[in-house]
Write a structure and sequence with these properties.
By secondary structure, the chain is of the alpha+beta class. 17% of the residues lie in helices and 37% in strands.
Length: 368
């Protein structure tokens, strides 16, 4: 087996070079069963074979395998004294041709050594070259079916053998290439990845997953988006409350927060500190409550800028409740509506001041 060991040493030298082409680093264990056909000079009938390989896939195109096979072949005239146990091993290079399907074809070739007992008519140790190919069919990330066909040439006695095999392979290790970052979307005011002209739900809170229409995902279809749904997986058709939970007749108590802002500012005026504390005390008393902080702007300036400004105002109030009063971040979300929902005439200074606001209603339902 000296040549096999030499081949393994060569593999160790060239592995780092192959790996730089885009390392995958995955290992495969390749057990298989096969059918082996022998050269006429061996006087052996075709026979079943067992194979076992350990393969290292360096990247999507290249791999290397140390493979062993065994066959207990019978003499073609039925003389048991001339039966042969054929045991071989080789080091093979595999060239893969990756595709988008589950089927990956490859070519293979290598060098090895085979042994058969000279006392029963075998050739002893013999150097062999092999060439062939096959394909791998992926069942999932770990398991695959591999078929393989090789022509095996014995250099010492000019023999020509062949082996066809099929096996179930197991993969482990390796690294996955990071997914490419999505290209930025032009004209996307709320930053949800859907252009404004297509977005049917503008003003989606930052970081909320949306569908192709730009609307927040609603996994259980109860009309409450996932980011506000406190009871996911509600059975279809069940009446739910605003938090996506089963509706129960309750008495509702609420507290309202309203803060007005200076022109083009997201700084909370100091005069509203009492408003913040009042809401925080209420939420601490009823620790199951949650709220959506809504930011608004007047119509001065561009609509896209006003949308961003209103979001900053809503975020400022949310952050103050979290930072200064210890309200859990999971209980407060913030959304900016820009100039879309005025409550007063934007033609007057007083009306614009009324429209530059952040509001939040905190409901609590007490069972009657």
């Amino acid at each position: 087996m000296r040549k096999v060991l030499l081949g393994a040493a060569i593999a160790a030298v060239i592995c780092p070079t192959l790996a730089t082409a885009g390392e995958d680093g995955k290992w495969y264990i390749n057990p298989a069963v096969g059918y082996m056909v022998f050269d006429n000079t061996r006087d052996l009938d075709p026979e079943a074979a067992a194979l076992l390989g350990a393969e290292r896939k360096f990247n999507k195109d290249w791999g290397m395998e140390l493979r062993a096979f065994y066959s207990d072949a019978e003499h073609y005239r039925g003389n048991p004294n001339l039966d042969q146990e054929v045991l071989g091993a080789s080091v093979d290079v595999l060239r893969y041709f990756s595709s988008a399907s589950k089927v990956t074809p490859y070519l293979a070739g290598g060098i090895g050594e085979v042994h058969s007992n000279p006392a029963t008519g075998g050739y002893g140790d013999q150097t062999q070259l092999n060439a062939g190919g096959g394909f791998r069919y992926a069942l999932d990330d770990a398991w695959s079916v591999r078929t393989d066909a090789r022509y095996i040439y014995g250099t010492d006695n000019e023999t020509a053998d062949g082996i066809l095999s099929v096996g179930l392979s197991y993969a482990f290790g390796g690294t996955s290439a990071p997914a490419p970052a999505p290209a930025p979307v032009v004209g996307d005011s709320d930053g949800d990845g859907v252009e404004d002209g297509v977005d049917q739900c503008p003003g989606t809170p930052a970081g909320v997953a949306v569908d192709a229409r730009g609307c927040a995902l609603d996994q259980d279809g109860d009309g409450v988006p996932n980011y506000r749904d406190k009871c996911p997986n509600t059975p279809a058709g069940r009446q739910v409350d605003k938090f996506g939970c089963k509706y129960v007749l309750k008495q509702t108590e609420t507290i309202r927060l309203e803060i007005n802002f200076a022109h083009d500012s997201d700084a909370i005026p100091p005069a509203y500190a009492g408003e913040l504390k009042k809401v925080a005390d209420f939420m601490n008393k009823y620790d199951s409550t949650a709220t959506v902080v809504e930011g608004h702007a007047d119509s001065t300036g561009a609509a896209a800028y006003n949308k961003q400004l209103s979001q900053r105002r809503a975020d400022a109030v949310r952050n103050a409740l979290i930072r200064d009063y210890g309200i859990a971040a999971s209980r407060i979300s913030a959304v900016g509506y820009g100039e879309e929902r005025p409550i007063a005439d934007n033609k007057t200074a007083a009306g614009r001041l009324s429209n530059r606001r952040v509001i939040a209603v905190v409901p609590v339902e007490v069972v009657e």
